[in-house]
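Shapes recur. Our protein:

. . .
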Amino acid sequence: MGETLYEQDFYSWAFNQANLLREGKFEQLDLSHLVEELEDLGNRHYDQLESRFIQLNADLLKSQVQDWKQTNSWRGTIRGQRTAIAKLLRRNPGLESRLDEAMRESWPEAKDLAIVQYLRQKKGGLT
């Protein structure tokens, strides 16, 4: 069996699906792949939220042990992550129902990241 357009050329497949939707040709849609891609799109937003929490929490942890680094730049980095999280939630209000989950899942990685960056900095490297 030959490859489908989805497998051969995702870009063309996506625009083909959009055109079929626009034209109301629902019976021609590749529903299984379309559903899969829509779910993946939503998951990417969640992954972005989790990634922002990892960086924010790592920075907050480091700020607790590196008082000398409490500069405007440091505070700006933390503020930037908070702003990005707020913007992501404004644009995707449905993510609010997963905030606790994202925080819980991001914490171990944030802790590990903070430790690695702190130890690297103590040895004289860059964070």
